[in-house]
Design goal:
The structure holds two protein chains of two kinds. Chain A is mostly helical. Chain A has one domain. Helix content of chain A is about 70%, strand content about 0%. In chain A, helix 4 crosses helix 8 and helix 8 packs across helix 9. Chain B has two domains: about 220 residues, P-loop containing nucleotide triphosphate hydrolases (Rossmann fold); about 70 residues, no CATH class. Helices cover about 35% and strands about 30% of the residues of chain B. Chain B has a six-stranded mixed beta sheet with strand order 6-7-8-3-9-10, with helices on both faces. In chain B, strands 2-1-4-5 form a four-stranded antiparallel beta sheet, covered by helices on one side. Classes of the chains: A mainly alpha, B alpha/beta. Chains A and B meet through helix 1 and helix 6 of A and helix 2 and helix 3 of B.
Chain lengths: ~270, ~300
């Protein structure tokens, strides 16, 4: 087994056993989803229960999760890399005949996978309920596609930020800053006078993939006549793919920086 | 496995000189590395494991040059290392932690890995607690896990930094015996500031002082150096101010002092047979005197 696979396996195992993971990600989304589904007829997902297509239903359901995901992922993952040094394990692992980069990637993938599990359980369980209740098996495929295209890229980006940020600043400060980043890069109004990534191909609410691939009515895409409009092209399949590629490339670049900084600190 | 350390210097952050022009050869077997806290022992250990690189000099282990990435990797394949401050994952059990380290050390064959982990858990006497989380382990138990992980790959080179700290007397004896047995067919570097660990385990030792190698020879050489410089005297007043006091024991309403000094500390002081500790104390005394003279 490679160092990458072994590290991913053990990181996944350690993270999944942490009650904090389930409390921080699964519980809020579970409660949220419960209110959404069982809430009054005029609000929440129940509003569309009998009216919309499976594709729209999974997008509506995801819409309840998406805005808070980067923030929650970032907060939960913030200590994963720096804790090896704090615990004193890093020195021992660095003397094993393994590539430090491979262990870093393994740790990253294991931690991200573990963090995704509670969200996946809640979201995909909701899709199963919908699929069975409405006799719409397509909901399963759409929810899976939405999970892979929306949740996974957000998780990978938040994960790489969480591997870099706490090396540059104290972990509690990073947790505060990632909340601020989430508002700046997604949750602000596009028309805001303050330049932000909201509604751009780098939006942390994934507007382009949501709008183009899932016809989400809540996605904000296209030029808005405000600053950073060059990042708000017309919504097409190409620009949605570009948005996904940019977010994944950004995640990879930040992870690379985290690895380089980690190696330098070890010296 | 032969170790050749030639004129190695290590400076941290451009200011703190941890090692200065240290040259040392270890042909094989077990070598004790003795020195006060801050003498540079841990820095030397970390250089040998490839964790840090020297600012000057050369380290060759076996046929491998530690200045190259390939050389470091080749050494790490045959290395067992117990760091001074061993960290563990508190959320894993001892068995899981050892399994993880074994995987990183390349023990890919699952049945063999399981068997090896089981054997080592028995060897360090924690088999009964092997499936308990490390969070609940005492310092001594964690130390034993550390010893087990260092032996996972049956290393040709074993580097142990303060291995017996936190162990109870029985475990300490057990571990010292194990180290001596392991040294029969591999190179073992035992770094410690506990003189007794070296006296009971090694025939050869090196002493570091303020980043320099101040002694390299046999345990009996260092012990004999103190011949004629170790004194015993009984007194009831203030402690003698001459030389370095090694011990003070109650004795018939007074105190029996053991003192290392170049001259007789008082007329009633009697010369006694030196131990390794006396030899080490005398060496440290002489070295600090030399350092003070150089500074002046």
């Amino acid at each position: 087994m490679t160092a990458l696979a072994a590290t991913a396996r053990y990181e996944l195992r350690m993270q999944l056993r942490k009650p904090a993971i389930w409390i921080a990600t699964g519980l809020p989304f579970g409660v949220y989803a419960l209110f959404a589904v069982l809430g009054s007829d005029s609000t929440g997902l129940r509003r569309h229960w009998y009216e919309i297509s499976p594709k729209l239903w999974v997008v509506e359901a995801l819409g309840w999760f998406t805005p808070a995901l980067p923030m929650v992922f970032g907060i939960v993952l913030a200590d994963r890399l720096v804790r090896d040094r704090k615990l004193g394990v890093a020195e021992l692992l660095d003397t094993t005949p393994t590539n430090r980069g491979a262990r870093l990637v393994g740790k990253y993938l294991g931690a991200c996978a573990a963090t995704a599990v509670p969200v996946a359980v809640v979201y995909l369980a909701g899709a199963v309920v919908f699929a069975v209740w409405r006799d719409q098996p397509a909901a399963l495929w759409w929810s899976l596609a939405a999970f892979v295209m929306i949740v996974v890229p957000l998780l990978l980006l938040a994960g790489s930020l969480s591997f870099l940020g706490p090396q540059l600043m104290p972990t509690p400060l990073f947790r505060v800053l990632i909340v601020a980043l989430f508002f700046w890069a997604g949750a602000t109004e596009v028309e805001s006078e303050f330049p932000s990534f909201a509604g751009t191909v780098l939006s942390l609410t994934m507007d382009y993939p949501l709008g183009v691939f899932f016809d989400s009515a809540n996605a904000t895409t296209g030029p808005a006549g405000v600053a950073l409009d060059f990042l708000r092209p017309q919504p097409t399949t190409g620009t949605a793919v570009l948005s996904l590629a940019l977010i994944l490339a950004l995640a990879a670049a930040i992870l690379w920086m985290a690895g380089a900084l980690n190696a330098r600190t070890s010296e | 496995m032969r170790l050749d350390i030639v004129r190695v210097t290590k400076t941290f952050r451009g200011k703190v000189r941890a090692l200065e022009e240290v040259s040392l050869t270890v042909p094989g077997g077990i070598l004790g590395l003795l020195g006060a806290n801050g003498a540079g022992k841990t820095t030397l250990m970390r250089l040998l494991t490839g964790l840090i690189r020297p600012n000057g000099g050369q380290i060759t282990i076996g046929d491998h040059d530690m200045a190259t990435a390939d050389g470091r990797l080749a050494v790490q394949r045959v290395l067992g290392y117990l760091p001074q401050d061993l960290g563990v994952y508190p959320d894993l059990t001892a068995r899981q932690f050892l399994d993880y380290v074994a995987l990183l050390k390349g023990l890919d064959d699952r049945p063999y890995r399981r068997r090896r982990v089981g054997e080592l858990l028995e060897l360090v006497n924690i088999a009964d607690a092997a499936d308990r989380k490390l969070r609940g382990y005492s310092g001594g138990m964690r130390r034993r896990v550390g010893i087990a992980q260092a032996l996972l790959n049956d290393p040709e080179l074993l580097i142990v930094d303060e291995p017996t700290s936190g162990l109870d007397p029985e475990e300490r004896i057990r571990f010292r015996t194990l180290l001596s047995q392991l040294a029969e067919r591999r190179t073992v570097l035992l770094s410690t500031h506990i003189v007794d660990d070296i006296a009971q385990t090694c025939t050869e030792l090196a002493v570091l002082g303020r980043g320099r190698l101040i002694f390299r020879g046999t345990v009996s050489d260092l012990t004999e150096r103190a011949n004629g410089n170790v004194w015993s005297l009984v007194g009831s007043g203030p402690a003698p101010s001459v030389g370095t006091m090694v011990s003070a024991l109650p004795h018939d309403g007074a105190t029996r002092y053991r003192i290392v000094a170049a001259t007789r500390p008082s007329a009633d002081a009697q010369p006694v047979v030196p131990t390794l500790e006396d030899g080490y104390v005398l060496l440290a005394q002489q070295h600090s005197l030399t350092a003070a003279e150089s500074a002046a």
